[in-house]
Specification:
This protein is α+β, with helices and mostly antiparallel strands. The protein has helices spanning 4-18, 130-137, 151-159, 166-171, 181-191, 205-219; strands at 25-28, 43-49, 52-57, 67-72, 78-83, 106-111, 115-120, 124-128, 256-260, 271-275. The chain has a four-stranded antiparallel sheet, covered by helices on one side. Strands 2-3-4-8 form a four-stranded antiparallel sheet, sandwiched between helices.
Length: 285
């Protein structure tokens, strides 16, 4: 599941493969961009902002100002990078011989002389001006993996809604950007709080915010994340997420599971929560 560490790593890899290169082909497979063609444009940079990816293209000599390709991975999105040698003998932008994901899920194919970047199952894909790109992410809180990370501002935003459950507040990108459902569940366990505990009742909120930063930093270079300090594989890598019915690694109590919806986003489906009933007693108990 893509979270802030995954998106940071995607931006790093895309930047290494594409920055400074001219696009020899661009193929957008979404209706609103069906006629867009950035062939001949230089990729200046690829950066992450929370869970958002921003690929900046230089202005073309005769085909418009600088542009930003904005993508969001949502639940299943991913950018794959292939060496240009994997292209078949067809025109630039053609499908590589062996994509690692189904071709019908491809939403963007960007080709340079040395690499092909393919965006699969992207939740958002749009082309923006510089101003529009700033507006697209201006609502986000401090970026846990950004150069401008500000723990005090993140705490201020979290505390601005003291009655909100901590499990919802951590997931809200307007408070701090980069936490997804895996990290919010793991952070609640590490902070010893039930996900439904009101923010005002979380005594160790600064510690949880600090742990969020440390966990994402520790995992940003790992292809498989670990929050336990154990091997990044299987049950050993996570404390509670996906562990319903299994013994807690700390006390042995059976991990429980439920869903938690967010009234602030009524159109969003309720998300899974996992907790240890002993390490994370429900609010009021």
């Amino acid at each position: 599941m893509p979270e802030g560490d995954t998106v940071w790593r995607q931006a790093r890899d895309l930047d290494a493969a594409l920055a400074g290169q001219l696009l020899t082909g661009s193929d957008f497979r979404v209706p609103q961009l069906a006629t867009a063609d950035f062939t001949g444009r230089m990729v200046q940079s690829v950066r992450s902002r929370g869970k958002h990816l921003m690929m900046r293209l230089a202005a073309g000599s005769a085909d418009g100002p600088a542009a930003v390709i904005h993508s969001h991975l949502a639940m299943e999105g991913h950018w794959d990078i292939y060496p240009v040698g994997n292209l078949s003998g067809r025109a630039s932008g053609a499908r590589p011989a062996r994509w690692r994901r189904p071709a019908h899920t491809a939403r963007a194919v960007l080709t340079t002389e040395r690499a092909v970047a393919v965006g699969f199952s992207l939740g958002t894909l749009e082309v923006l001006s510089d101003g529009e790109a700033r507006t697209a992410v201006e609502h986000l809180g401090p970026d846990l993996l950004g150069p401008d990370w500000d723990a005090r501002e993140a705490l201020r935003r979290l505390r601005a809604a003291p009655d909100r459950p901590i499990g919802l507040a951590l997931l809200d990108q307007r408070n701090l950007a980069g936490i997804g459902n895996i990290y919010r569940n793991e952070l609640c366990l590490l902070g010893g709080v039930h996900p439904e505990t009101p923010v005002a009742d979380v005594a160790e909120l600064p510690r949880i915010v600090d742990l969020a930063r440390r966990l994402l930093e520790a995992n940003k270079d790992r292809p498989v994340r670990s929050t336990t300090g154990g091997p990044a594989r299987g049950d050993a890598s996570l404390w509670v997420y996906g562990q319903a019915g299994k013994p807690c690694k700390r006390c042995g109590s059976l991990i429980r599971h439920a869903t938690l919806g967010d009234p602030a986003f009524p159109r969003h489906a309720a998300r899974d929560i996992y907790w240890c009933p002993r390490c994370q007693p429900a609010a009021g108990r």
